[in-house]
Design brief:
By secondary structure, the chain is mostly beta strands. It is 1% helix and 50% strand. It has a five-stranded antiparallel β-sheet, with no helix packed on it.
């Protein structure tokens, strides 16, 4: 274990507490943090893609705990599983990785032989506790932690599978950046059903679900956020504000507010679906490049891959 320490931030006054507040936390130089996942104990896990590490930030002190994942590791995504442990999609190891949060034991679940170079991206758990994941080379797959066996499927239309998420009822959807579609996965057969957004070649990058089971999609090429209603099989789209928006990440908080990262504005953006209104939060560091967002009650976290920092908006 390696520690990286930063002085904690000064307290904010009561007047400031009423408005959303943006704060950054540096992580070790050269980390290139890609994804974040708030931990049950109040910390925040992140993957350091260039250094092959898993990090845990303590927001109260700024201290970072670092765990090496193995030689050739290049982690992309991290989520916290039903077991409370961080689960990682590691493109360098071509494997799913679990880290025990107490012992720091690293467990590696390699993809089957013949599935090298999958370019693993993101993972999500369904309601049965099965982990589903994507690979940009043109695959998606699943791992049942109880069995320990990794299954891989060929994606429709080849390369592109990127973001993935589960709805409240456990249905899993993924987005294909190169394919410009989203897909619903059958939990038994693993088959993918392609669902077409209205805008052609929109570049569906990441997905998330709200409390009603609607699927929200960040459309990278189109600079839009879209909503798919599985009940009515209908879509609605909104273009982000600004001249050249680049909608990368999407996350829906526990109030059903939709958050996005906008590369064009170097900002995090909050969208109110009821009023159909955007609010833009400029990031303190230029070229922050927030590639993924996750949160917990009152907080939205992002990984600033371009500047070796994590960022939080507290509201």
């Amino acid at each position: 274990m390696t520690l990286f320490v930063l002085c904690s931030a000064r307290p904010l006054c009561a007047a400031q507490e009423s408005a959303p507040r943006v704060q950054e936390y540096p992580v070790p130089a050269g980390s290139h943090p890609h994804d974040v996942a708030p931990a049950p104990d109040g910390g925040v896990w992140y993957v350091a893609q260039r250094s092959g590490e898993l990090g845990l930030l303590d927001p109260a002190t700024g201290q970072v705990r670092r765990i090496k994942l193995g030689e050739k590791s290049r982690p992309h995504g991290v989520i916290v599983g039903p077991d409370g442990a961080p689960w990682i999609t590691d493109g360098g190891l071509n494997a799913i990785v679990r880290v025990d949060p107490l012992t720091e034991k690293v467990s590696v679940y390699p993809l089957p032989s013949g599935r090298e170079g999958a370019n693993l991206n993101t993972a999500a758990f369904d309601k049965r506790g099965v982990l589903w994941f994507t690979g940009q080379s043109g695959i998606y797959g699943r791992l049942d932690p109880k069995v320990g066996r990794v299954e891989v499927f060929d994606a429709p239309r080849g390369s592109g599978p990127y973001g993935i998420a589960a709805t409240p009822d456990g249905t899993v959807y993924y987005a294909s950046l190169a394919g410009s579609y989203i897909a619903r996965l059958d939990p038994v057969t693993g088959a993918a059903t392609v669902i077409e957004p209205p805008t052609p070649k929109q570049g569906a990058r990441r997905v998330w679900a709200d409390s009603k089971g609607n699927v929200w999609v960040s459309e990278w090429n189109a600079g839009q956020v879209s909503r798919y209603d599985p009940v009515t099989n209908t879509w609605k789209e909104w273009r982000l504000p600004g001249k050249n928006p680049g909608a990368y990440a999407v996350y829906v908080d526990d109030r059903d507010m939709v958050w996005l990262s906008d590369f064009g504005a170097n900002a995090l953006v909050r969208f109110d679906p009821v009023n159909e209104a955007f609010e833009v939060f400029p990031l303190p560091s230029s070229g922050a490049n927030v590639r993924q967002i996750l949160g917990r009650h009152g907080e939205v976290w992002g990984a600033e891959s371009g500047v070796d920092k994590l960022v939080v908006i507290r509201y």
